[in-house]
Amino acid sequence: MTSDPEAGQFGSSLTLTCSYSSNLPVTNTNWFVNGRPVTETSRVDQTSSFAVNSLQEEGFYQCFIRTENGNVGSAAMFVSAQGEYFTCYAI
Questions:
Q1: Which of 13, 26, 36, 69 is the most interior residue, by most CB within 10 Å?
Q2: Is the pTM above the cut of 0.85?
Q3: 24 strand-pairing partners
Q4: How confident is the model at residue 44, as a pLDDT?
Q5: Are 62 and 32 in contact (CB under 8 A)?
C-alpha cells in the first residue's frame, strides 16, 4: 500500500493505493478504517485507490483484494497523528 502524500496536515486530502500482482482478475477491493468498513469502495481493477477528502482519523487503514477464484490479499497502513499533522507508515 502507498500513500500520497506520506505526511501532511489533518483536514487535508490523502489517497491510499492498494496494489495486487496476480494473473487472476481482481473482483473487488474493500477498505477498512480501524476495523470499520468504508462504503463505496468496491472496484474491479488491479489498483484501487481510496481518497480521504478531509483526513480526521488516526489509525489503521486496510485494504482487502479478492480475485475471481476467491483468493484474498491484504495490506495495511498506519496513519499516526503528531499534533495537527499526520504521517503514514506502511505495515
A1: 26
A2: no
A3: none
A4: 46
A5: yes
Tell which CATH architecture fits domain 2-90: Sandwich (2.60)
The grid coordinates listed for 77 are: 497502513
Look at residue 21 and give its three-state secondary structure.
coil
Of 89, 67, 87, 69, residue with least CA distance to 78: 89
- The stretches in the chain having pLDDT less than 70 are 39-47, 51-54
Instruction: Phi first, then psi: give them for residue 84, nearest 5 degrees.
Output: -95, 10
Peptide bond into 37 cis (omega under 30): no
DSSP assignment of 27-62: EEEEEEETTEEESS----SSEEEEEESS----EEEE
